[in-house]
Each structure stands twice: as C-alpha cells, then as structure tokens.
C-alpha cells in the first residue's frame, strides 16, 4: 500500500510541474527592497536614509492619520510633514492636492502608509514627479508590489502600467494590521488573491509567476480565516502579508485580465468599494474563464484545497459576513449596459474572448439577478 501511495504522489507532483511549465516566457523581476517582520515600522528612518531621502512627505487616509504622524515623529527632522487626505480610487483632485503638497513642502519623496488608497496616491506623485516612494501597507491588497497606477476623473477611472511608480522600498509590519476589522482583512486579502488568479492565465505569465501565484493564494486562504477568528494573531497576519506580497508581485510581473477591467469600470463609474468589488466579482469571472484556463484552475484547486475553487472563494468571503452581490454594494440593473460598454471599449487580455454577452452575464450573475 505504501508503494502505491508514493507512486501516486510522485505522479501528482510530476503532473503539477508539467502543468505549470511553459518553455517560452519572459520574466521581469521587481526592483524594490522588501522588509517583513513584526515591528518593522521602526526600520523606516534607516530605510529612508538608505534611499537618500531627506524630506519625505508622509501620505495616508484620514483614518490612518495617527499611524502616519507616528511615522513622521520617528523620522524627526527628516520629514516634510503629513498629508492625510488620500481617498479611494485616487480622484484627480486628490492627486492634484498631493502633488501640490509635495512641491510646497519641498519633499524629495513620499512615505505612503495605509491600503490601496494611500499607496495609490503615492504612485500618483511618483507618476508626475518621478520621486521615490516607501510603501508601508496596512491591508492585504498587494498594490504596493505592482506598477499599476489608477486615477479617477469625471469620465471614470484611468489606469496604466509604469515601473516608475513602483515603491523603492516596502515595509511589511503585521502589527500595523491588528486594528483591521475581519471584513476589511478578508476583502483586501481576496483582492490580492484576484491578482494571483489573473496572473495564472495571463499571456505574459512565467513558471516563476505561476509558483508565486499558487503559494500566495495558499498563504492567504490559510491566514484569512485565522485572522477573522483572532484579529490579534500577528503570526496569521504576517502570513497574510506574505501572501499579499506574493500575489501583488504576480500582478507586478503579469498583465491584468477581464476581472480587473470589470472592477476598474465598476469602481470608477459607480464608486463601489474597491476591495469588496474585487471579492464579489472574482468568483463569477473565475467561473466564466475556467473552461479556457484549465492549468490556472488546477493550480487554484491545489492552493485552495478544493475541487471547486469558485465555491471555495465564496466560502472564504463568507467568513467575514461580507456582501455577496454587486446589488448590495450599490449597482443597479440600469448600470449593466454602461459598464459593459466601458469594458468593451478597451478590453484587457483574457483567456476567453471578451464579448458583450459574456460581460453582461458576469455582471448579472454578480448582481444576484437572472
């Protein structure tokens, strides 16, 4: 019996490696330094000095202002102050105000403390002024590891890829995430998982990206229920940050697909909450793409420990009593057609052809309506 079991395991391992192997690929690594440990915020002064920063401006949302001011106090005279005005989806007015504040303070870089809103604002500064950014994430979204920027104007959310917006340094301190609610922890973690899911079937993925994606999904899927059960569990929160780092790195090295295009359109047009939208939409896009992405689906089965990754993702979201439909987030039936048109106007690469019928079907399914 032991011999049979070992042979079966060896066959599974061989199948795993063969399924993830692509002999033709290009892989670009990410050029930043990463620090990860409890209490790592204490490394911020040394990190800014190593980058040659004398007057970085600390960016945050109003909700993270206390942490931002603590960071500024730690920097002492080597800071240009605090700008606690980051907002979701980086509105144009918010980007303009931050860039003006950097110039007025004579700042030579930024320290972005918080989730995607603060880090996105740091990217908006880097995009326009080419100044270095140190990212200190306090959620699990993983945007600190991507060259993707987004700014929302009156005509919706505009995004792009520019390696110049990548943070020069990222500091992961699980102690900074202990005040996150179970809902925010889970939603931002599933947002990160979405990065890995799309990297698994991206046209420019690589064997290394596939390995990072699978491990990142596995780490987050294991950590998020533990974080929900005990928000003070810094070991679980550290593992969640590890997973977010890997998943974000995947999006940093591979292009986005239909899922991200949908979420960008929904966020920019309807101002739906970013992480909740990702968590709600992801299972529906995964179900839509699964027939055209068997290797990605197999990797997710392994990572999630389930023969049904779609149901596993829904179960993961349910641990935080999160909304399960776009209708709960504020989308109406009247929004389906305008969002569909926006997605089709500039579709992203996707394993399954992007059609009006397919997009409408995903949106209606995610809304919880036929």
Strand share of the residues? 5-15%
Helix content: 40-55%
| Element string (H = helix, E = strand) | HEHEHEHEHEEEEHHHHHHHHHH
Using the coordinates shown, work out and report the CATH topology of the largest domain. Answer: Dehydroquinate synthase-like, alpha domain
- Classify the secondary structure makeup into a structural class: alpha/beta
Put the structure in a nutshell.
Keywords: NAD, Oxidoreductase. 55% of the residues lie in helices and 10% in strands. The protein is an alpha/beta fold and 370 residues long.
Overview of the structural elements:
The protein is an alpha/beta fold and 370 residues long. It folds into two domains: 40-172, Rossmann fold (3-Layer(aba) Sandwich); 182-367, Dehydroquinate synthase-like, alpha domain. 55% of the residues lie in helices and 10% in strands. It has 15 helices and eight strands. The protein has helices spanning 2-20, 44-50, 65-75, 92-105, 116-129, 182-200, 207-229, 234-253, 258-270, 274-289, 294-304, 309-318, 326-329, 336-345, 356-367; strands spanning 33-36, 56-59, 81-83, 109-114, 133-137, 148-153, 156-161, 169-172. The protein has a six-stranded parallel β-sheet, sandwiched between helices. Helix 3 links the parallel strand 2 (56-59) and strand 3 (81-83). Helix 6 (182-200) packs parallel to helix 8 (234-253). The longest helix is centred in the middle third of the chain and has 23 residues, at 207-229. The radius of gyration is 20 Å and the shape is globular. Residues 1-22 have low confidence and may be disordered.
């Amino acid at each position: 019996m032991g011999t049979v079991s070992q042979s079966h395991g060896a066959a599974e391992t061989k199948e795993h490696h063969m399924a993830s192997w692509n002999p033709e690929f290009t892989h670009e690594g990410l050029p930043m330094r990463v620090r990860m440990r409890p209490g790592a915020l204490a490394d911020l002064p040394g990190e800014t000095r190593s980058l040659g920063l004398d007057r970085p401006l600390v960016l945050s949302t109003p909700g993270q202002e206390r942490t931002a001011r603590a960071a500024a106090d730690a920097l002492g005279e080597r800071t240009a102050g605090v700008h606690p005005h980051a907002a979701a989806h980086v509105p144009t007015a918010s980007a303009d105000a931050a860039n003006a504040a950097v110039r007025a303070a004579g700042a030579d870089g930024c320290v972005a403390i918080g989730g995607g809103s603060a880090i996105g604002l740091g990217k908006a500064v880097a995009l326009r002024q080419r100044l270095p950014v140190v990212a200190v994430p306090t959620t699990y979204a993983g945007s600190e590891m991507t060259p993707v920027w987004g700014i929302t104007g009156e005509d919706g959310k505009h995004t792009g890829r520019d390696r110049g917006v990548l943070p020069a340094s990222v500091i992961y301190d699980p102690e900074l995430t202990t005040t996150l609610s179970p809902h925010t922890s889970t939603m931002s973690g599933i947002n990160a998982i979405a990065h890995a899911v799309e990297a698994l079937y991206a046209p420019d993925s690589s064997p290394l990206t596939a390995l990072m994606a699978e491990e990142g999904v596995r780490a987050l899927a294991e950590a998020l229920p533990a974080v929900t059960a005990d928000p003070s569990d810094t070991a679980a929160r550290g593992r969640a940050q590890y997973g977010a780092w890997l998943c974000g790195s995947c999006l940093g090295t591979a292009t986005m697909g239909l899922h991200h295009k949908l979420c960008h359109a929904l966020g920019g047009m309807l101002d739906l909450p970013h992480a909740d939208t990702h968590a709600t939409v992801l299972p529906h896009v995964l179900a839509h793409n699964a027939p055209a992405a068997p290797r990605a689906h197999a990797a997710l089965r392994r990572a999630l420990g389930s023969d049904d990754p779609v149901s596993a993702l829904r179960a993961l979201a349910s641990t935080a009593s999160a909304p399960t439909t776009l209708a709960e987030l504020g989308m109406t039936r009247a929004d389906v057609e305008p969002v569909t048109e926006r997605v089709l106007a500039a579709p992203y690469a996707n394993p399954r052809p992007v059609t009006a019928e397919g997009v409408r079907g995903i949106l209606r399914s995610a809304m919880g309506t036929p």
